[in-house]
Amino acid sequence: MDRIVIENVEVYARHGVFPEETRLGQRFYVNAVLYLDTRRAGISDELEHSTNYGEVCCLISDFLQEHTYKLLEAAAEHLAEKLLLTFPLVERLELEIRKPSAPIPVPFSSVSVRIERGWRRALIACGSNLGDKESYIRNALQKISEDEKCRMESVSDLIVTEPYGEVEQDDFLNGALVVRTLYTPQELLAFLNRLEAEADRVREIHWGPRTLDLDIILYEDQVIRTDSLTIPHADMQNRRFVLEPASQIAPEWIHPIYGKSLLVMKEELR
């Protein structure tokens, strides 16, 4: 990935834990590395095909002057998000905020916080078998596409599938979508759970009927095992209602544990 490197943007701002820091202010220095594809700009020689680093510098300066944070960590986090939301060609960035005049009672040069943030690719399965199934799914897709921290990349066809498990219930309508998101896996899970709750999802019977089901199937190539979240989604390799729509929109996505593409996994399931 190509890079635009910005070094030592000087900003006089009011960030700090102590009252005198927010009252008097001090100098901060910001370094940023923007990762993006500059090939088109390099061929066309047109600024519209790249990211204007002058505008990036102005945003950094304006943002840090307009906002006040106690912690450098918070300033860096919110500034990184603002940059990623403002400049659509930037895939990810490294951001450092340096504070050379921090109130530290020993000799030092400077302190800084450095973070890396960016858009991440996630595969989400969706389903419904209660009420107006398609309406529940379409409404959820609309809300996901409207969220500023999600960019809809592709959506599969919806298919009718038989219920999974031993509970007698109506057939499901299932699909899948690929999004690029600024949410961490845990944040994305919380967001999807909120959408389920808004659709009156009730969790009373395991594998039972539901108005809306939104599951994270894959998140980049990450493997996560916690009490609340399992990625890749457990048992996805045995579920046609996951693999068929998922392989339609992301056939070459490799399962990080099995080392097989979704298309191969679907064919093996058949």
Summarize the structure.
This protein is of the alpha+beta class. It has helices spanning 19-24, 39-44, 53-66, 72-86, 133-146, 185-198, 240-249, 262-269, and strands spanning 2-13, 26-36, 92-99, 111-118, 120-128, 150-155, 159-161, 172-181, 213-219, 224-225, 230-231.
Fold and architecture overview:
Helix 7 runs antiparallel to helix 8 (262-269). With 270 residues, the protein is of the alpha+beta class. The radius of gyration is 23 Å and the shape is elongated. The longest helix has 15 residues, at 72-86. The chain contains eight helices and eleven strands. The model has no long low-confidence stretch (mean pLDDT 94). Strands 5, 6, 7, 8 and 9 form a five-stranded antiparallel beta sheet that branches. Strands 1-2-3-4 form a four-stranded antiparallel beta sheet. Strands 10-11 form a two-stranded antiparallel ribbon. It has helices at residues 19-24, 39-44, 53-66, 72-86, 133-146, 185-198, 240-249, 262-269; strands spanning 2-13, 26-36, 92-99, 111-118, 120-128, 150-155, 159-161, 172-181, 213-219, 224-225, 230-231.
